[in-house]
Amino acid sequence: MASLFELQELSGINCCFCAQCNTRTPSKQGFKLLSLPTILCMQLQRFRNCTRGIYKLDCSLEFPESIDLQEILREDMFSQDFQNNGGTKYSLFAVIVHSGTAMFGHYTAYVRPAPGRQWFYANDSFTGPATWDNLRDTYSSPGSTAYMLLYRRNSNEEGEEEEEKE
To answer: Which residues fall within 8 angstroms of residue 93, CB to CB, at 6 or more apart?
Structure first.
């Protein structure tokens, strides 16, 4: 996750274009956090472009049931104006899974209403109970891999989730 905030060099066809001097200039691009969201969505970048087209990456990628961003991110990844408005600990509550190839496929999901509660699997025609082992199968199962992770911020140090506001 920390790699999302590393500076990336923009060179070659990715250089920035300067309208004043009419040239492409190598530069660096990066991100800094201003605040942390209640729901943290992480798209896992399972697809790549290359000269021969788009292909899907089925490489293994493990993900935890809970994360503390304070343990993952360095201080320089936060903006000077960063506002910590509710903590840095999150619990996984949904995993979107892509089955198929880069050119076609199908999306399904694993969802859990709250930490410590039962996981459920859902597709177009079926919803039923699931286990953490079922989710772990999406780390690198050929053709059927986790595509997006959704974490909900915990409301306190014990790991309880924030109450939904009505």
So the answer is: 111, 112, 113, 114, 115, 150, 151, 152
